[in-house]
Write a structure and sequence with these properties.
α1 packs antiparallel against α2. By secondary structure, the protein is α+β, with helices and mostly antiparallel strands. The radius of gyration is 21 Å and the shape is elongated. It has two domains: about 70 residues; about 80 residues, Pleckstrin-homology domain (PH domain)/Phosphotyrosine-binding domain (PTB) (PH-domain like), CATH 2.30.29.30. The chain is built from four helices and seven strands. The strands form two sheets. A four-stranded antiparallel β-sheet has the order 1-2-3-4. Strands 5-6-7 form a three-stranded antiparallel β-sheet. The chain starts with 8 loop residues before the first strand and ends with a helix. Keywords: Membrane, Transmembrane, Transmembrane helix. InterPro entries: YdbS-like_PH.
Length: about 160
Amino acid sequence: MFMRDLPANQLNPKIKNVWRINDAIWLTVVFLCCFVPFAIAAAVEPEGWMFVVLAAVAALYVAGMVVWLVVLPPIRFMRWRYELSDDYLDIARGIIWRKRFVIPFIRVQNTDTRQGPILRAFGLASVTVATAAGEHEIPGLDSGTAEQLRDKAAELARLAQEDV
């Protein structure tokens, strides 16, 4: 079976730090939601099993931080690719479950750029392409590249609509 080559363009390398910050925030929130109730219960009525649960939750937190902040970002970065041709947008991503999206411009309804506070701090933005089937996002482009990609995708979508 013939597979098409991976798209040529990669994200800005700064996206790895954005992912690390986002993942650290979420892991810490989940950790606190699991740890604090047991810590309160252990403080009120100390029992041996509660300290075992607290130690296990803390160990899982540390392991999760290592995996999500050290191991996954470089792999995720290598697997994230995109390419804009005259007829379609090609996106490839995924570590374990790899996904490949080929979005014909005839189907594109809307293109946007998004920039949250963490992306903005690194000078990055995301481009979102919407179709009737849903949205497809390309995260971690420098702001200028994101604007150019958004405008080019919008123009190609407009031209594809005119050709029909």
